[in-house]
Each structure stands twice: as C-alpha cells, then as structure tokens.
Specification:
Layout: E1 14-15, H1 20-23, E2 29-39, E3 57-59, E4 63-64, E5 78-82, E6 85-96, E7 101-107, E8 116-118, E9 121-123, E10 128-137, E11 143-146, E12 150-158
Antiparallel strand pairs: 1-6, 2-3, 2-6, 2-12, 4-5, 5-11, 6-10, 7-9, 7-12, 8-10
C-alpha cells in the first residue's frame, strides 16, 4: 500500500527537485545524481557500530561537453563517463522523510537497458538527508551518466507500529508528520 506522491505536498519531502512534472511519477519520485564517488578503500561493519568505518572514496570529476561559447556550469552538458565497476552515488535532492512514513529506493528500469543497476535501499522514518546508493556498471563498454540524471526512485509507505525515528550518522534534521488520510492505495 504505497503513498501516491502526486497527492502529497512532495516539495516538502523531496527538496531541490529540478522539475516536479518530470520527477513525480504515478507511484514514486525520481531522484537525480549530484555526485559520483569511486571506492579506494575498504569499509567495516560490526554489530554495535563500535568499529564501523565507511569505505574511503574519491569523487569522480565531471567532464564538460558543452558546445563552443556555452557558459560553464553544472548543467545538462556535464557528464561522468564510467568504466565497469562499483560507484557510490549521492542524490542532488534532500529527502525529508515524515515520521509516519518509510521509503524504499529502487532502480529506474531504464538503467537495466544500459547494463547498469543501482542498489535497493530503505529510508527510515524521520530521516533527512541526501540519498546514497551503489551504482554497478556491468556493461563492458562503460556507462555515460549525465549530471542530474534520474537514476533511482523513492517509493513511500505508511509506517506501521511504534513511532521511532532515524537518529543515525547521516541525519541532517528531523521532520514532522504528514496527513496520510486517503493518500495511499
């Protein structure tokens, strides 16, 4: 029973969208790419986060493919040409998940036709921040990714049960609840 994003005031949940009329889908919200990072070290995960360490990464620089005379800025002419491998992607948009909702991050099906896929992720109630995901470039010829390309989708669901919220290391701020009456199937 997912929440229909076109009924909600999506701009308060997914901030900094480039164009809502394109990004808001019938049952999801497309998120775009702001940063691509390549792994250069290993990470560590344990039971209680006592030894947790994020894997070291370096940002993959954008390539400028603008037409002669065109002003430079991060725009539709900025790309990443990625080789086979695994990358961390960071969304342009900030997601401010309401305390009475949870979210699921899934790949856009267009990625499969390019020989790439993204990891599936979960967004806890009360989380606020950029969405991080993995991008797997399986195509032996690589993958061209444009800055602000729509790469993953956010699907929202009502949170059921005890109202605890995310308080992890990626938290930017907290959110209030939204009215879910008649906003889900």
């Amino acid at each position: 029973m997912s929440i229909r994003p076109n009924i909600l005031d999506v701009g308060k949940i997914v901030m900094e969208m480039k164009k809502q009329s394109i990004q808001i889908q019938p049952n999801s919200i497309d998120l775009t790419v702001a940063h691509v990072e390549k792994f250069i070290g290993k990470g560590t995960i344990d039971f209680d986060n006592k030894y947790r360490e994020q894997a070291k990464t370096v940002e993959v620089p954008l390539t400028d493919i603008r037409v002669a005379g065109e002003e430079w800025r991060y725009n539709e002419r900025a790309i990443w040409d990625l080789e086979q491998g695994v990358y961390r992607i960071i969304s342009y948009e900030t997601v401010d998940m309401p305390e009475n909702c949870v979210g699921l991050i899934i790949p856009r099906s267009s990625t499969f036709n390019c020989g790439v896929f993204t990891s599936v992720g979960f967004v806890d109630s009360g989380f606020c921040g950029k969405i991080r995901s993995l991008l797997y470039v399986m195509n032996p010829y690589g993958f061209r990714l444009y800055y602000r390309a729509r790469l993953v989708q956010l699907i929202m669901f009502p949170a059921i049960g005890k109202k605890e919220v995310y308080k992890g290391i990626y938290q930017e701020k907290t959110k209030t609840m939204i009215d879910l009456n008649d906003n889900y199937d």
